């Protein structure tokens, strides 16, 4: 996946544990992605994947989902907007999407910071509303801010703060 600043191998993360916003993001996707370096620090990636939210086994339906990312970075700063969108599950009519924003900064050789925002959207038929063609919508929002100050090349102090909330419609 192209989502989020934290990765599966924990030594590459600021903290030894992963955060709450990490749990909103699919860890892996099965599919094909094409990427291009557009020059001047800009990048673009587009692809087709199995499931937008990675909540069920891979390739559990005949529909496919889309993924993409627009990014920019230089020596001290970076920004990336990524997302997945498509149908999930095998019952049909269940849509899922995630929009992910990551901002990163390395203002000094010792200090690194990142901010991560995620919006996860799920729409699915539900109860009486489904019988009448209605949908239930679930929106989850997550914010995370983390920093690491390097004392030496091998030792540092890291901190992370997060906030999440859910809005049912």
Q: Can you describe what's shown?
A:
This protein is mainly beta and 169 residues long. The protein has one helix at 127-131; strands at 31-39, 42-49, 65-73, 77-87, 95-105, 111-125, 135-150, 156-168. It has an 8-stranded antiparallel β-sheet with strand order 1-2-3-4-5-6-7-8. A hairpin with a 5-residue loop joins strand 5 and strand 6 (111-125). It is globular, with a radius of gyration of 18 Å.
Secondary-structure element string:
EEEEEEHEE
| Low-confidence runs of at least 5 consecutive residues | 128-132
Strand fraction equals over 45%
Distance between the termini: 28 Å
Label this structure with key terms.
globular, mainly beta, 169 residues, eight-stranded antiparallel beta sheet
Helix and strand arrangement:
Elements: E1 31-39, E2 42-49, E3 65-73, E4 77-87, E5 95-105, E6 111-125, H1 127-131, E7 135-150, E8 156-168
Antiparallel strand pairs: 1-2, 2-3, 3-4, 4-5, 5-6, 6-7, 7-8
Question: Can you describe this structure in just a few lines?
Answer:
The chain is mainly beta. The chain has one helix at 127-131; strands at 31-39, 42-49, 65-73, 77-87, 95-105, 111-125, 135-150, 156-168.
């Amino acid at each position: 996946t192209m989502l989020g600043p934290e990765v599966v191998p924990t030594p590459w993360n600021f903290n030894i544990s992963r955060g709450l916003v990490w749990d909103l993001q699919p860890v892996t996707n099965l599919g094909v992605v094409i990427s291009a370096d557009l020059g001047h620090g800009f990048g673009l990636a587009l692809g087709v994947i199995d499931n937008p939210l990675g909540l069920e086994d891979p390739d559990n339906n005949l529909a496919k989902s889309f993924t993409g990312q627009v990014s920019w970075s230089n020596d001290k700063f970076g920004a990336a907007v990524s997302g997945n969108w498509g149908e999930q599950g095998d019952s049909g009519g269940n849509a899922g999407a995630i929009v992910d924003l990551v901002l990163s900064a390395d203002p000094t050789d010792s200090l690194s910071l990142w901010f991560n925002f995620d919006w996860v959207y799920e729409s699915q038929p539900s109860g009486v509303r489904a019988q009448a063609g209605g949908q239930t919508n679930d929106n989850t929002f997550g914010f995370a801010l983390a920093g690491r100050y390097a004392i030496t090349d091998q030792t540092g102090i890291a901190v992370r703060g997060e906030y999440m909330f859910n809005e049912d419609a």
